[in-house]
Specification:
- With 881 residues, the chain is α/β, with parallel strands linked by helices.
- It is 44% helix and 18% strand.
- It is built from 35 helices and 25 strands.
- β9 and β10 form a beta hairpin.
- α26 packs antiparallel against α27.
- It is globular and about 90 Å long.
């Protein structure tokens, strides 16, 4: 690796950073990319990278960034990740080595919301030399709608998990962004990466075959064992009982595991290699005494989550790390409650994690208790700081089993030897129907099993939705033996094209997301017929459709729809609506409400009454939007129910105060607990920040004297903090709400100008010693470690060994080699015959050394000792993830 990169004149600092991390040679796909011009500075090539999880996509992204930044002046780029959790992880991964090379990696932890005050500052930060901004497709779309010309100087855009183009809801946004870059900024180098796609050649045809290279590798760096849960034939029946219209009985069965290698393994009489692995039950009904017993779809039955818990219980006994993906938030929490697992490993670290979670949530929260047992749940309605802490505990090996919803499915590089998928369907909020998980998403999820460079193999268990119907074999074939067609990345613009042609130029008749997509062309200056033809002709849909007449007809229909809408509402009105990221229907609601009340928002009025009145007006309009109809916000669309709770959220109050406010006005029932308040705040954060951002953009467009507090509201709502510095700290990557408020106070004390740029510079200047002064390691070790990643923008470099003392239980000679094990909270030295030789006397430096997912730890006695006396040892990591 060193030789290859030196010949290509890649930064010496980067080469040594790779060596420091143990990367000594390139793998086949990396060499393939280099041979195809990844390190060629001019002219650049676009790249399609299709590699399994852990096969080296991150290094390819780093090399592409370094090469692009060496090509010319004004070097900046964007890395697009499909979720905020992945934005956080990618930022940490990239800065770990690129920061050594003078490249700034700056996350923008945000969704579709836009702040009238912060937008210009965020765009200015993006354009700083040798800077990569890591963000979501929705946030990049907001930037592009409001300032497309900024991207004329962008050098490189990397789209991760690009197979999500096939998703009906988010896919059109990703495809539209790539298409707009192709049509309007063809000089930008585009890199598309995925671990689950089969049609790289088709994507290359889309980007331009002469300018695009393909890197494809199907072989995983770790072997993967695929297993599907099935119902075995043996069963016992309970006594039948009479019910209305017949009788019912409970049927119990044993469940087994089929190991899948070939198609034949799931055909005909498939072989159950692991019998009696779990148990299940279902209900049968007999309508009359002469009728046959039949499966009762509405009767009681064991669920895929029940079976997944049983399987996880067996696997966890082997000491492996297990990720269990479930269908819903309720399932994730319930699985933790019924999972009776506990070991005595990492007790001190788990207590530290539990203490952090209690500080972020409330004392006695069940998740803190679960973590002390080595298990946890993870879902989108936990605060971001809690999600990051659970991910950190999983990464460090403190947590053995985590039950998660799709929040951990979006490509996160979570270390797990075993992945269990509990159920093969999910509930689609848009269609209001259950849908099968897409094969590409399953392949991506399965890629979490087996940690590259640590595990030699990973295990994936598929538990079909209901084993009572005995369709496991067919489900297993669908996902384990999928063909290339299942992993084909397909455009979702066909639905838009069909709808536009069918609705006779009526933009409001389209679905909300389709309206927003058409409005994006207005914002990009592609609204006339020529522009629409340029856009649609540059899309993946055009490549896959292959019919020029249909493409032209669609472009004409899109241009006609925008022209008709401009005639109806006015060009200026349409331009404003196009920049909000909402449907036209919702944009008109906000524009009308903000226009009627524009005078209320002018001038600086810091009185609580005035601010409350202003928030109430925007909240009233927001609750009318279809984009905000989720959870309690959709069930109770009256501003009066939510106003007090919202004001306490943006005031930085704790969840107890927010719960009381929500209960007093009926947003939450009297029986709700703190956990409900946490989920309620998640809804406020996700949806109201979006609508408030759009409202502020409308107000900012109507005059220059907008109250700065109103312009800042979207960020305050997004992060639940009370002031601008805290909001900017959160925006720049600090997911810890408590820490963001403290850092905001520290920044204010400096007297520096309160802008995103100044806060960013201040964070870049902070040292580890400064952070430890604010958050002492002995009291806040986990908080400090998370902040070291988020604020100092780097990972701690693991030490190879540490010296210390031990207290001997018998005579121990110098040179003795012993294993180390945790016995309750004490680290002990154990001989080969399992005799305990002594206990390690832990000190601060040793505690820091022990942070990490240590699979094996040994000790060498450097100074022997008689019984009950102290000797000296060196602790050595022998395996470390």
């Amino acid at each position: 690796m060193h030789r290859v990169l030196r010949q290509a004149a890649v930064s010496e600092r980067y080469r040594y950073a790779l060596a420091r991390d143990g990367y000594l040679e390139f793998w086949k796909p990396q060499l393939q990319a280099i041979s195809k011009g990844l390190l060629r500075r001019s002219p650049h090539k676009n790249f399609i990278v299709s590699l399994p999880t852990g096969a080296g996509k991150t290094i390819l992204a780093e090399l592409a960034i370094l090469t692009a930044f060496d090509a010319q002046q004004g070097k900046w780029g964007v890395y697009v990740a499909p979720s905020r959790a992945l934005v956080n992880q990618v930022s940490n991964d990239l800065r770990h080595r690129l920061s050594d090379c003078g490249v700034t990696i700056r996350p923008i932890i945000a969704g579709a919301e836009q702040s009238a005050i912060a937008l210009d500052a965020e765009l200015e930060l993006m354009q700083l030399n040798r800077t990569v901004t890591v963000t979501t497709p929705e946030k990049l779309d907001a930037y592009y709608r409001n300032a497309r010309d900024v991207f004329n100087t962008c050098r490189i855009v990397i789209f991760d998990e690009v197979h999500k183009i096939s998703e009906p809801d988010r896919g059109p946004i990703i495809e539209s962004l790539i298409t707009r870059f192709r049509a309007l900024q063809p000089d930008i180098q585009i890199v598309l990466m995925s671990g689950a796609m089969s049609n790289a050649e088709e994507l290359a045809e889309w980007l331009g075959p002469e300018d695009t290279e393909i890197v494809v590798e199907e072989r995983r760096p770790t072997r993967q064992i695929r297993r599907v849960a099935v119902r075995q034939s043996g069963r016992t029946e309970s006594a039948a009982r009479a019910v209305r219209k017949g009788r019912v009985r409970r049927v119990e069965y044993r469940g087994g595991i089929v190991i899948v290698h070939e198609d034949e393994d799931l055909k005909g009489e498939f072989e159950v290699q692991l019998p009696n692995f779990f148990r299940g039950w279902f209900t049968e009904r007999q309508p009359s005494e002469t009728a046959r017993w039949a499966f009762d779809r509405n009767g009681d039955k064991s669920t895929s989550s029940d079976h997944a818990v049983d399987i996880a219980r067996v696997v966890a006994r082997a000491g492996e790390t297990v990720l269990v993906f479930v269908r819903s938030i309720a399932s994730a929490e319930r699985c933790c409650r019924i999972f009776d697992y506990q070991d005595n490993a990492d007790i001190a670290h788990r207590r530290q994690l539990a203490s952090f979670l209690e500080a972020e949530l409330y004392p006695g929260h069940e998740l803190a208790e679960f973590c002390q047992r080595g298990i946890a749940y993870h879902h989108a309605q936990l605060p971001p700081s809690v999600q990051r802490a659970v991910e950190y505990g999983l990464e460090q090996g403190w947590l053995r089993v985590v039950f998660a919803t799709s929040t951990l499915r979006e490509g996160l590089n979570t270390p797990a030897t075993t992945v269990i998928l509990a159920g093969h369907t999910f509930y689609n909020d848009i269609t209001d129907e259950p849908e099968d998980i897409r094969e590409a998403d399953f392949a991506n999820l399965a890629g979490r099993a087996g940690r590259p460079r640590t595990d030699t193999e990973g295990r994936i268990f598929l538990v079909p939705d209901t084993l009572a119907m005995a369709t496991a074999a067919e489900t297993g074939k669908k996902y384990f033996l999928m063909g290339e067609s299942a992993l084909r990345v397909t455009s979702q613009l066909r639905a838009l094209a069909d709808a536009v042609r069918a609705e006779n130029f009526e933009l409001r008749r389209l679905r909300g997301p389709q309206q927003a997509l058409v409005l994006a062309l207005q914002a990009a200056g592609l609204a006339d017929e020529e522009g629409a033809i340029t856009f649609i002709g540059s899309s993946l849909w055009s490549t896959q459709e292959g019919d020029d007449d249909v493409v032209r007809q669609t472009a004409v229909a899109v241009a006609g729809t925008l022209a008709k809408t401009a005639d109806e509402i006015g060009r200026e009105h349409l331009d404003l609506a196009s920049k909000l990221g909402l449907s036209l229907t919702s944009a008109e609601v906000l524009i009308q409400a903000m226009t009627e009340n524009a005078d209320l928002f002018r001038g600086l009025d810091m009185s609580p009454e005035s601010r409350r009145d202003r928030v109430r007006v925007i909240l009233t309009a927001s609750l009318q939007l279809e984009e905000v109809h989720y959870g309690a916000l959709g069930r109770f669309p009256e501003a009066a129910r939510h106003l007090d709770a919202l004001m306490k959220w943006i005031g930085g109050d704790d969840y107890n105060e927010i719960l009381r406010a929500a209960q007093d006005l009926g947003a939450l029932p009297e029986t709700a607990g703190i956990g409900s308040a946490v989920k309620y705040c998640s809804q406020i954060s996700a949806w109201l920040s979006w609508s408030f951002g759009a409202s502020c953009s409308v107000l900012a467009a109507s005059g220059d004297d907008l109250d700065p507090f109103i312009g800042l509201l979207p960020l305050l709502i997004k992060y639940g903090v009370p002031d601008a510095p805290s909001a900017y700290v959160s925006l720049l990557g600090v997911s810890d709400r408590h820490a963001a408020k403290i850092l905001g106070e520290k920044f204010l004390a400096t007297g520096r100008l309160v802008t995103v740029q100044e806060v960013s510079r201040w964070l870049d200047e902070l040292s580890q010693e400064y952070l430890e002064g604010i958050f002492p390691v002995q009291n806040h070790h986990l908080r400090a470690d998370l902040l070291r990643r988020q604020v100092l923008r780097r990972w701690p470099t693991p030490r190879l060994y540490v010296t210390g003392q031990f207290r001997a239980h018998r005579l121990v000679a110098p040179g003795t080699v012993a294993n180390c094990q945790w016995d309750s909270q004490q680290l002990v030295l154990v001989a080969e015959d399992n005799e305990v030789l002594g206990e390690v006397l832990l000190h601060r430096g040793m505690n820091e050394f022990l942070q990490g997912n240590i699979i094996s730890l040994m000790a060498v006695v450097t100074e022997g000792a008689p019984k009950a006396q102290r000797g000296r040892i060196a602790l050595i990591r022998t395996q470390l993830t």
